[in-house]
Amino acid sequence: MLRFLLGWARGALSAILYAINTAFWVSLLFIVITARVIIPIASWRRLCGRAAISIAENWISCNNLNQRITGRTRLYIQGVDSLKRAEWYLVLSNHQSWVDILILQRVFNRKIPFLKFFIKKELFWFPVLGQAWWALDFPFIKRYSKRFLEKYPHLKGTDLEITRKACEKFKALPISIMNFVEGTRFSQAKRARQQSPHTHLLKAKAGGIAFVLQAMEGRIHRILDVTIVYSEGPRTFWAFLCGKIEEARVHIRSLPVTADLVGDYAEDPQFRERFQQWLNHLWQEKDHCIQELITSPPLPDCTEWAQQPIIQNRTSCS
After folding, report:
1. DSSP codes joined into one string, 182-247
2. Which helix (H) or strand (E) holds 295?
3. Rounded to an integer, what distance in angstroms lies between the CA atom of residue 14 and that of residue 6?
4. Beta carbons of 207 and 40 less than 8 angstroms apart
């Protein structure tokens, strides 16, 4: 009972700190965005855009500090050595819970350009955060089922057009485009329903990332293949706040974007098949990597905070 109460108190304190931190930085963000809208001068808007990104990075840094003060999760990371802030990246990761986003932000903040990801349109109405994502130019997309598109065929390709417009904005400054290619959070029920060939992953969806690589017109030279594993398996955001995730292991591979990975996915069937095969092979390797991370021996009892700037994972997953 005492352990439960201590966990609940830890979670409540962490949630309060997240709320205060978010309210402070988002207030500054809205001031900057209002200034950007009022003065329609290109150079001024670019300056405001840089200021908005700086605010967001400070917001994440304070969130990371909150995790180190109130959290109990030890973070072991491999593969951040050669990352650059002046490079465009496409970041691909497995997806288990909302905690993944916090872990990715903690790992990559100020090591690569600011992470942006495609968000379901409905999340625009999520209090404060939805509007903050909009202010930071996160692209909002509306996913339609095949049955819906058969009924309303004029909406087909809407997501691709939104992606194209977002990528036009992303060309101006180095950016990291985040994509959970499974399309949703992993669960054994979803895996069974999909009849996924993988043990720890859902099927990967190739169309979105293929279109991003094409739309960015050669600016993306590296793909960051990220694998996240939690010691207790997928857990909720509240469990993370309460310190119920003792360890997270993050493995990162930097892969080159070769010429055969850029093409017309929608109109070229040969390219589409080749790209799907490449992604399926990548996902098969990731499934093996997850298994290795799960079964590897316990790591030394130390934290990211203890060894700045970041500690290195001892696993051999490659």
Report:
1. TSS---HHHHHHHT-S-SS-PPPP-HHHHHHHHHTTT-EEEEEEEEEEETT-S--HHHHHTT---E
2. helix 269-295
3. 12
4. no
77, 61, 59: which is closest to 19 by C-alpha?
Answer: 59
The two tokens of residue 34 are: 């209002």
303 or 181, greater pLDDT? 181
Instruction: Identify which of 159, 130, 179 has the alpha carbon closest to the alpha carbon of residue 279.
Output: 179
What CATH fold (topology level) applies to the domain 72-306?
Answer: Glycerol-3-phosphate (1)-acyltransferase (3.40.1130)
User: Residue 140 — pLDDT band, cuts 50, 70, 90?
Assistant: confident
Q: What is the pTM of this model?
A: 0.86
Average pLDDT over residues 200-221: 91
Q: What is the residue extent of each domain of the chain?
A: 72-306
Q: Phi and psi dihedrals of 74, rounded to 5?
A: -80, 135
Question: What is the 8-class DSSP label of residue 117?
Answer: E
